[in-house]
């Protein structure tokens, strides 16, 4: 991921381009137009103190960035290697199994819209 590497156990790994996941604000710094995705790694050490699970769910993203049990990586390209043949979840649906490579293809989609109905973001 842009030269950065993480190695270790995790209980949750999210690849997202969103400020919210499952209704929770997990990354208020996410930018939909920067050509990058956010990889959020929740380390197994979170489980050492059960109250940390509540902190994860209720915490603001600026608070979460200071925790040792969570890591945020912003990248345009990543290779995620996992030991087990785990099935990935893609927006609620079963998807690929095992290791994956991710690359953002910035500005590759065009949309045809009615300008009168477009709201500024």
Strand order of the largest sheet: 1-4-5
**Low-pLDDT ranges:** none
Any guess at the CATH architecture?
Sandwich
Overall pLDDT score? 81
List SSEs in N-to-C order.
EEEEHHEEEEE
The number of helical segments is: 2
Q: How much of the polypeptide forms β-strand, as a percent range?
A: 25-35%
Beta strands, count: 9
Q: Please report the distance between the alpha carbons of the first and last residues.
A: 28 Å
Rg over alpha carbons = 16 Å
- Secondary-structure class: mainly beta
Domain count: the total is 1
Helical content band: under 10%
Query: What is the CATH topology?
Result: Tumour Suppressor Smad4
Can you give me a brief rundown of this structure?
The protein is mostly beta strands and 121 residues long. It has helices at 51-58, 61-64, and strands at residues 10-16, 20-21, 24-25, 37-43, 70-75, 77-80, 87-90, 93-97, 100-103.
Q: What tags apply to this protein structure?
A:
single chain, 121 residues, mainly beta, Tumour Suppressor Smad4, three-stranded antiparallel β-sheet, two-stranded antiparallel ribbon, 2 helices, 10% helix, globular
